[in-house]
Amino acid sequence: MEENRLTGYEEWAEGIASKIRKKMEWVSEKNKDKIPYTTNEAGDYDDRSDTNKKWALDDGLNWWTNGFWGGLMWLLYQDTKDGRYAEIARLSEYRMEKCFEGFYGLHHDVGFMFQLSAVADYRLTKNERSRKIGLHAANLLAGRFNPVGNFIRAWNEVSNEDTIGWAIIDCMMNISLLYWAWEETKDPRFRHIAMAHADTVMKHFVRPDGSVNHIVEFNPETGEVVRSLGGQGYEEDSSWTRGQGWAVYGFMISYRHTGKQEYLDTAKRVAHYCMANIPENGIIPVDFRQPKEPAYEDSCGACVIAGGLLEIAKYVPEQEKEMYVNSAVKILRAIDETRSDWGRDCDAVVQNCTGAYHSPEHHFTMTYADYFFAEAIYKLKGTGIFLW
Hints:
Layout: H1 10-30, H2 67-80, H3 83-96, H4 99-102, H5 110-125, H6 128-142, E1 145-146, E2 151-152, E3 166-168, H7 171-174, H8 176-185, H9 188-204, E4 215-218, E5 225-229, H10 241-258, H11 261-277, H12 299-313, H13 318-338, H14 367-381
């Protein structure tokens, strides 16, 4: 049973959970041999583990979202107690273990890849193979730490860019892997690295108004800030909404594991900025500061923000809970009622996701949008253990 239970929307959440169960019963069986990311025009999931296709170095088995399919299966396993979901989750987990052999395609997103697959498996079943996979990934992530700048380096080589000094807001979610490794091994190095990175993000990414930078470049030799970059948002100094979600949720992860008050305060500051900018219809744009037209959306960013708001609600005084929960439910209702496919025309539930504002593609599906949507619904139901 989840601690710090939220109340008031259990019946509504159970109705959505029922639809998730019904949809995922056939979707999971249809795609049990895949590691899916997105759907094609026919509504069928792709397969990032397809060995017949030639992938880029950081794609295929190394694709950063590959842990979310297993994570979704573990959510369903907790909900239904059906061992079939554990079996499907392990198929992708064990395939991803091969990524360690190649090494070059792995970067900061080993947290996303292995926290919701291997670590979730170990937490729920005490599978020793999963523990080893999780600790291997945690040591790789810790190895990306720059001790002069106190940040975890983001990607490896990106086109012709020198990214050695780059750090990104997304990594606030990845460091959950380090907190788990610390708690599992009692080795404080993992906690020290995670908190040092979180402190750097708190200082250099979060602006006074609660908006956040996506990318900050540091001088890797001195640790000095060089510049901020717009990344996947509209422009530099704008407000990429999924990045806002990574910040809200990420700082709550750090607060849950350390109890450091500044992390909760920072999560609340970013959350208040988000809540002030949620449109009346609950549909979240790609960037809170983008032009009105074209009206690009990101339903995935919406679900991440909702999940972060619900985490805050668990740790604030009773009189504060309602505003966070109500804002999250406003987003989730919009997803359920206007941006979800509950039929058989599409393997994915959540529609109208966008990777980056300036990407040529918009409004497609993402496996991790389904994960964060389902996870938020289970938070409202008050069931399941916290996987981060």
